[in-house]
Amino acid sequence: MNTAEMTISDEQTVRALVIEDHDLMRLSLIHEIKRYFRSCIVLGAQTWEVAIGLMAEHEFDLVITDPGLPGVDPTAPSQRLSVVGEVVEACPRAVHVVITGSDKMEEGLACQKLGANAYLAKTGLDGDRLIAALQRISEEGFCLSLSEIPNKPPEYHY
Predict the structure, then answer these.
(1) How far apart are CA 13 and CA 39, in angstroms?
(2) pLDDT given for residue 87 in this prediction
(3) Is the entire prediction scored with pTM above 0.90?
């Protein structure tokens, strides 16, 4: 699937991989992918080692990657970009979405040069913004969304 094919027909089963070490974020992303695509198979990888094994065994249409996995120095841009580059190289036909808590414009543009189709900040990311990013990829080919903390009222849960 290329960026122009991000709108999937009802008959096509989307194969997706979510590479994210934080359990709640990984499970939320999987849930949103399942909500967006009518027919999909979504695999989750908590570690780089698991992700490498899955990418060697399967082809994916969509890969969501957090470059700040355990063992990657979050202050070393070269290590973070290396993760993105290796994922893009392992799954060249997939649409690649990078999600990060350490978002920077320069890193987002570097990810685009490596072949990523989107670079999304985790801060302010919810299901609607993820889906909007997927739609923007199909329309424009790339989506860059940096941290946005909306001015929302406090949340009260009882």
Answers:
(1) 5
(2) 98
(3) no
